[in-house]
Amino acid sequence: MAAQKSAPRSADSVAAVIKAYDVRGVVGQGIDVDFVKDAGAAFARLMRSEGARSIVVGYDMRESSPGLAAAFISGVNEQGLDAVNLGLTSTDELYYASGVENCPGAMFTASHNPAKYNGIKMCRAGARPVGQDSGLDKIVADLIAGVPGFEGDPGRSSERDVLQGYAEYLHKLVPMDIRPLKVAVDAGNGMGGLTVPAVFRDLPLDVAPLYFELDGNFPNHEANPLDPKNLVDLQEFTVASGADLGIAFDGDADRCFIVDEKGDAVSPSTICAMIAERYLNLHPGATIIHNLITSKSVPELVREAGGTPVRTRVGHSFIKAKMAESGAVFGGEHSAHYYFSDFFNADSGMLAALHVLATLGGQDKPLSELKVAYERYLASGEINSEVADQQGRTEAVVEHFADRTASVDRLDGVTIDLTDGSWLNVRASNTEPLLRLNVEAPTAAEVQAIVAEALGVIRAGEAG
């Protein structure tokens, strides 16, 4: 029996949950089984038009995830495509399955967002991105008009566990002939609690686990290590356990954050430069991608190592597209997303962690000393301000710094290079009335001064 056309949806209701890179929203408020079933049908219809015959589907530990994944699979099957339910997976484990099976994938997760949220990260065969202008726009159009029914036979669903294959694949990418290390790991009650034991098993690592119990209610802290308050437990635990380093994963474990043996956070830009150096040793002269918010030490160090740095906008779909276009071997973002050519150009927190462990364990210095070679500047981190007139406030910042400006570019928001070697970037959020400020300078005092000036302009006349 042919599937019926789905009911049309309002443009506003669809836009409320389909963002620039994925689907994200509060469960029961835009994200429910009916919407997700239609989204599965729209995604399957798009992938069928591109020649796909099956889709792999995974989900995280949130209470809503299994039911939403099942509804999505139902929509996929109604469009004549088979679906392989991977069960509990990390996002990069889903990318692994998409890559090795060469089929599209869908991951149910809201990443680092609180428990009431859920969403879908979708990819094409080979873990290639589906973004706002590369597929999500067609899915949006189908949801608004109503997804057309499929006249053929429905697809079938099956189940598969790929965790062991994922672990073995990563082991082949990063040989771990290293000195023994003690590593503290904060899984944040997220998917790292499932993947870390599988990947770290049989490696020369003494793992001290923290919050490994899968719990989508996040009883200990939000699974968002980008926020410094969520790193505090790991910092204290690393020092107390005498570990060589600490690793924190976000909720779906596609990002990792590092602290040294003293409990001090290691900048994602430092990790980016460290891993870039490893890839350039293996691939002399290769291209390395970095987004425009990473430290300028990253392109400097890449050039010094004989590589070619390429700067891009913030966001995984832009990074992945530029990786494919340029033939880059590695890419990094300030948000601790790291992308690997030998991992289907996809991001993987676990693969990044293995590279850091291999770097540290391949020499004798503690991480606090090792990281110094990659740190040249100080950064503010991302500072958000609620602003109604985003464009007006952005241009006011440009005008304010005009007498000290060396150059301005508008690749993503506005980046202002100052004559003293400092820089700042101001860009608007895609989804909220926020302006995001990032500043980097040679000293902490200079960072603080520029931040104070910029925020004074951004927040002039605003409540936030």
Question: How would you explain this protein's 3D organization?
Answer:
- Pfam families: PGM_PMM_I (PF02878), PGM_PMM_II (PF02879), PGM_PMM_III (PF02880), PGM_PMM_IV (PF00408).
- Keywords: Isomerase, Magnesium, Metal-binding, Phosphoprotein.
- 36% of the residues lie in helices and 23% in strands.
- By secondary structure, it is of the alpha/beta class.
- It has helices at residues 11-15, 33-49, 65-78, 91-101, 132-145, 163-173, 192-200, 232-240, 268-282, 297-304, 316-326, 349-361, 367-370, 390-400, 444-458; strands at 23-27, 30-31, 54-59, 82-88, 105-108, 117-123, 157-159, 181-186, 205-210, 245-249, 256-260, 265-266, 287-291, 308-312, 330-332, 338-340, 346-347, 378-379, 383-386, 405-409, 414-418, 423-428, 434-441.
- The model has no long low-confidence stretch (mean pLDDT 95).
- Helix 9 (268-282) runs parallel beside helix 10 and helix 9 (268-282) packs across helix 12 (349-361).
- The chain contains 15 helices and 23 strands.
- The strands form four sheets. A seven-stranded mixed β-sheet has the order 2-1-6-5-3-4-7, sandwiched between helices. Strands 18, 19, 20, 21, 22 and 23 form a six-stranded antiparallel β-sheet that branches.
- The chain folds into four domains: 11-162, Alpha-D-Glucose-1,6-Bisphosphate, subunit A, domain 3 (Alpha-D-Glucose-1,6-Bisphosphate, Chain A, domain 3, 3-Layer(aba) Sandwich), CATH 3.40.120.10; 170-264, 3-Layer(aba) Sandwich (Alpha-D-Glucose-1,6-Bisphosphate, Chain A, domain 3), CATH 3.40.120.10; 268-374, Alpha-D-Glucose-1,6-Bisphosphate, Chain A, domain 3 (3-Layer(aba) Sandwich); 378-458, TATA-Binding Protein, CATH 3.30.310.
- The chain is globular, with a radius of gyration of 22 Å.
